[in-house]
């Protein structure tokens, strides 16, 4: 592969050591959400760009996987929450197959967390409450963009946004009927911590009737 200057980039030679520290069984918490909360707090304290950004993986009706970056907006023992246009590609996928995976790629801390589970639609009350907590321009943008639909030029999107901004300038922005969110109810969580000599630490939490089973995985 060549870079913009025409120089060849040897991808196979690109490597580095992982030296941030390991993850040992005494570091683990009885439930995965406790450790996730700690790691998320540390990601925020480290001032990572978009520490709540997660790769959301869904599959279409043919089994073709898709991924995109979405922001986590809430989490508790019930699950992890994100919002989206319900006409978007990911929402259409989840309507047909609600199995989902979320990956938090905290590379500067040499960490990853992967949640696997199913997505459930949020209640209208939850959606309305969050929608009206957003900045007004973000509310208007939700109306302006029919997510994942084809548009011929950015100017069309910008024009629609300005038109709606004028329309709603003196009043509340109503919740679009096509806007909503999902709660991911997870049944497994994997924590990955980079290690020296590629001996990474991986622990998998799997939900069982009486709690969580924890296994160490080979890197």
Automatic annotation (TrEMBL):
BP terms from Gene Ontology: pyridoxine biosynthetic process
Chain residues that bind FMN: 68-73, 83-84, 89-90, 112, 147-148, 192, 202
Description of how the protein assembles with itself and partners: Homodimer.
Lineage: Bacteria, Pseudomonadati, Pseudomonadota, Gammaproteobacteria, Enterobacterales
Pyridoxine 5'-phosphate oxidase dimerisation C-terminal domain boundaries: 179-219
Textual note on the cofactor: Binds 1 FMN per subunit.
Binding site for substrate: 15-18, 73, 130, 134, 138, 198-200
Domain Pyridoxamine 5'-phosphate oxidase N-terminal: 40-166
Required cofactor(s): FMN
EC code(s) of this entry: 1.4.3.5
Matching InterPro entries: Pyridox_Oxase (IPR000659), Pyridox_Oxase_CS (IPR019740), Pyridox_Oxase_N (IPR011576), Pyridoxamine_oxidase_dimer_C (IPR019576), Split_barrel_FMN-bd (IPR012349)
Source organism per UniProt: Providencia sneebia DSM 19967
Cited function: Catalyzes the oxidation of either pyridoxine 5'-phosphate (PNP) or pyridoxamine 5'-phosphate (PMP) into pyridoxal 5'-phosphate (PLP).
Family per similarity comment: Belongs to the pyridoxamine 5'-phosphate oxidase family.
UniProt xrefs under Pfam families: PNP_phzG_C, PNPOx_N
Protein's name in the database: Pyridoxine/pyridoxamine 5'-phosphate oxidase
């Amino acid at each position: 592969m060549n870079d913009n200057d025409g120089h060849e980039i040897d991808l196979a030679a690109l490597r580095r050591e992982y030296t941030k520290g390991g993850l040992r069984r005494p570091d683990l918490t009885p439930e995965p959400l406790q450790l996730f909360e700690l790691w998320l707090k540390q990601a925020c304290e480290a001032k990572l760009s978009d520490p709540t950004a997660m790769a959301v993986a869904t599959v279409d009706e043919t089994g073709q996987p898709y991924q995109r970056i979405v922001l986590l907006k809430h989490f508790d023992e019930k699950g992890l929450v994100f919002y989206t246009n319900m006409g978007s590609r990911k929402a259409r996928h989840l309507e047909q197959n609600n199995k989902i995976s979320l990956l938090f790629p905290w590379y500067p801390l040499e960490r990853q967390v992967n949640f696997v589970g199913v997505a459930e639609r949020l209640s209208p009350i939850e959606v309305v409450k969050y929608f009206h907590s957003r900045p007004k321009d973000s509310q208007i943008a939700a109306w302006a963009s029919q997510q994942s639909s084809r548009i011929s030029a950015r100017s069309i999107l910008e024009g629609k946004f300005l038109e709606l901004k004028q329309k709603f300038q003196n009043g509340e922005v109503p919740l679009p009927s096509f806007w909503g969110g999902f709660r991911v109810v997870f049944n497994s969580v994997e924590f990955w911590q980079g290690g020296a000599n590629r001996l990474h630490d991986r622990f998998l939490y799997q939900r069982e009737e009486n709690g969580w089973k924890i296994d160490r995985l080979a890197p």
